[in-house]
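I hope you will forgive my troubling you with a question about protein structure. The record follows directly beneath this note:
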Amino acid sequence: MSQVNILLRCYYETLYELLEEKKNILINRIRAVLGEQLKAGCYENFNRETFDAYWEACMAFIEERIETYNPIGIQYMYGGDRRDEAFKMELQLDWFDSRKEFQNLVEAARIKADYMTSDDDLREKARELIQEAGAFPDKSIIAGYRAKPELKKLPDYVVALIIEENIRESENDEQPE
């Protein structure tokens, strides 16, 4: 396995640990961010029942996104021969195009891997990669929604916003004062 692949696996594992640790914070932010985005998008006729349905969708997406990074399951998603096939299928199912973002993530990992001097650097480089690249595919989700806002895209968008917000706050938590 190449240093780039090792770093990418550590990136996903570190994301999983971070988001699993902060899951309650993520969940608690959903109502507020969903409400803000509904107002910002001028979506009308949103009764309590409809709001609750979108809130539940966001909750499911949080769980799904965290499990996407689970190191136990990550090998099935991004490893081996099935990676290309799974990636093509995902592109057909998703309303956003994440190919460029994935290429940028791999390129950033390649650059960081070139500067890893030991296995001890691995976690540090993975955290740096998360801070620089965010949580794949959040940038694609955010850009796709902003380019063409639609109500059906809102749960993915809200979850991406919350995850990215949390990553930025985690970066500030680690900074020495």
Remarks:
- Residues 3-172 form one domain.
- The mean pLDDT is 86.
